[in-house]
């Protein structure tokens, strides 16, 4: 940005380390970003991260979903903060309500069956919640690290251990405070 003189478009409240030397324009739900291919409408989609945004492209009936959904697989990481599971499920619903015909994830190919994939990701998250709930019922004294080992089956690679434990903590928080799976 410093080299081009451009403006960084970022979620409201985001302050990159270089913010003092570049222009930052905060985006919030419903804001519009003009492009040469039509406006993009900001959709706040927390869950994967607290400040996650998607960009709805009404003229193309598409949504740039970032890391909310991936171009492959059944899941994305949901464990950054307590309350993220509730936010993630609500964000999936928000994208579903847009009823787009195409999704552009940050990772992987475009998603050409958005509702099928959204349903698959929601189902996976609900199944994971149920799995955590059932594992805790069998092992009520287990801490989140132990539950993560049981839920994710055996040894978790060292580089993924912290993320797995955070995801289990987020699931436990959701189960204890937000709702029951189902």
Describe the 3D structure:
The mean pLDDT is 91. The protein has helices at residues 84-98, 114-138, 144-151, 158-178; strands at 7-11, 23-27, 32-33, 40-44, 53-57, 62-66, 102-105. The chain has a 5-stranded mixed β-sheet with strand order 3-4-5-6-7. Strands 1-2 form a two-stranded parallel ribbon. It is of the alpha/beta class and 182 residues long. It is globular and about 55 Å long. The chain has one domain (31-178): Metallo-beta-lactamase, Chain A (4-Layer Sandwich). 38% of the residues lie in helices and 17% in strands.
How many distinct helices? 4
N-to-C span = 45 Å
Structural shape: globular
Helix proportion:
25-40%
Main sheet properties: 5 strands, mixed
Widest β-sheet, arrangement of strands: 3-4-5-6-7
Strand content: 15-25%
Q: Write down the CATH topology.
A: Metallo-beta-lactamase, Chain A
| Rg, alpha carbons | 18 Å
Name the CATH superfamily classification: Ribonuclease Z/Hydroxyacylglutathione hydrolase-like
Number of strands: 7
Name of the CATH first level: Alpha Beta
Tally of distinct domains: 1
CATH architecture: 4-Layer Sandwich
- Compute the average pLDDT: 91
**Element string (H = helix, E = strand):** EEEEEEHEHHH
Structure summarized in a few sentences:
With 182 residues, the protein is an alpha/beta fold. Helices cover 38% and strands 17% of the residues.
Secondary-structure map:
Elements: E1 7-11, E2 23-27, E3 32-33, E4 40-44, E5 53-57, E6 62-66, H1 84-98, E7 102-105, H2 114-138, H3 144-151, H4 158-178
Parallel strand pairs: 1-2, 6-7
Antiparallel strand pairs: 3-4, 4-5, 5-6
